[in-house]
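Human: You know discrete backbone vocabularies at least as well as I do. Show me how you would write down a chain together with its backbone fold. No explanation is needed for now; the record alone will do.

Assistant:
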Amino acid sequence: MSRKLSPDLLEKYIFNRIGRLDSKVILGPRYGEDAAIINLDNKYLVMHTDPITGAVKNIGWLAVNIVSNDIAVRGVKPRWILLVILLPMNFPEKDIDAITRQIDKAAREIGAMIIGGHTEFTVDIERPIISATAIGVTSNKNIVKTCGVKDGDYILMTKGAGLEGTSILATDFEEKLREKGVSEKIILNAKNFINEISVVREALILSEYANSMHDPTEGGILNGLAEMAYASNIGIDIWIDKILIREETKIICRKLDIDPLRLISSGVLLASIPPNNLEKSRNVLDRERIPYSIIGRAGGKRCLRIYRDGELIKTLYDRYYTDELEKIWRAK
């Protein structure tokens, strides 16, 4: 399991070392933002790259879906994907077959084409690594950004916190879960969360109503909300009792002593919705039968304020939260 560089390291070593500036780049590297935006005169190119390092058995499926999510939260349909696939030496051919079948299936479901990339056997790695780049194009100049949260916006989430992490734990650590007394039914249900990793459908649906959308990955819901707050320079009240957490996630996290709010959460969409669009957003999600909850509201000083049953229980000022999956991989 990898971890993102902290915001301090990004600002110190990354964001100010980006080569020659180009006026066509509307949005380049910036904390919390999911994809770059490039002006092609009458159209806009949206691009993002993401590696998969915390999963093994479903790595091809995850690679395509997760990078596509980062395009979709801009309100843009992903169309083209490039992949860099690094494999351990002597990696079995049957596993190469499985990975590429996953890639093909995921791309077909999203409606995107794999247009190139690179594959190689690599020394000094113990499990496969895939880095994926997704590209989309739009003529709509009002592209949704993470930094778009406005005072008074309601914060909406879909599905359930820790969705991807729960699936990874059930798939790659199932023996450990059995040893902890987790039932076969819970493990199987959790494995199937992998089929809900894409947020492309709901992101494209909500894009006309949202001021901001974000795909919470490493660090989970908590880190995703922090990224939205700090990118937008605004505070967010979080109603913790309203956060969706599935029973399988609760059980697995309790057995492993980890926090579901800091568990990698691809498959969840976070969106900030202005009050005048809230009812429309509810209606469209209800119609599409996508589970959701209103979990907070934006306003005030830049921080996260955690409420339970209407009472403020904690104020968080950190910009970055490490993922709970990291300590499980470390202990393996």
Summary: The radius of gyration is 19 Å. The chain has two domains: 7-138, 146-331. The first strand starts at residue 25 and ends at 27.
